[in-house]
């Protein structure tokens, strides 16, 4: 992480994620009025008065927990604390100083060298600022009361943060290739993210619904920047009832929409399900490139026959993604996981590949001469010009005498001709037909 890290910590339900969203300027973290919603670390770049830093949100800090997911949440918090240049210690001004606040303060003083700012939250009126004075008892010098919900005191907190950090330019996050890891619950998405990154970046558990938010992690491969996005499992809409899961599903779908490449995980033992097909169709509809990942392959019979049989199953049931390469991995054991990196690079390169206009015109001209489109009405359909649009996914503008006369089968034929000539591995190809009037 090239930018200095500012980490938000505090006990459960004091408003850490609300403050994170306020500072980021958007709903990046799920916020509900219940403890334990945030589990994994969440990061976002911030710029304030010419200074840039990376802001981190964390789950509830509960030193001393011994069992369950809380142990993994604590480990995530501790990792976030260790990498921080400055810590924003959030407390609840309305509830006052609690024994857990004091326990967290002792842990921070013992384990952390970073500068610590105590932030009493829920100070919704200037008259409430007196509530913040109680927290001086914890022994920290800097206290900055805020109301994360209403934005009061947030500018003062930002001023305090940037004064303590070195001047750093904003990281070029927009140029990174965004890779969303998607699939049904419990297919191994978080395990794959950790295996690719070589660290326990996100919590892994057999419990369904462990991952709740879309977690972005920057990394680089062959000097190319990427952002790997872990997402919540996507179940059938009819099975989603709880508000928290609805939020999680919405974040996962949004992650697909903003991704350049989607790693679509399927369980090799279970095979292709109807929900896998729905997820794959959504990926295609958004225009994201795709790689199909058969996970838990270490539990399958060895040999080429098993791969061939599974490949045939995927191609039969996910025909709309016949352009997506297939990888066979085991996220848990690490089997073939690193082969995803060069494959990911290949797919990303084809997504942005551009074909010179003369070559496109020559290819479309030859294809239409070889198999002319069926006549529409009394006049034949004629293609006059073709070019590639600037933005991914690969989109081709075809100027034609009558766009309505070019039916779906013939469009599919033209797409196949383009793919045969230029591959566009993993990328959906879009055709936009325009008539003489430009419509």
Automatic annotation (TrEMBL):
Keyword GTP-binding: yes
PROSITE patterns named among the record's database cross-references: G_ENGA
Pfam family, one: MMR_HSR1
Residue stretches making up the EngA-type G domain: 4-169, 177-352
PANTHER family listed in its UniProt record: GTPASE DER (PTHR43834)
NCBIfam families: GTPase_EngA, small_GTP
Assembly, per entry: Associates with the 50S ribosomal subunit.
Protein name: GTPase Der
Organism: Candidatus Methylomirabilis limnetica
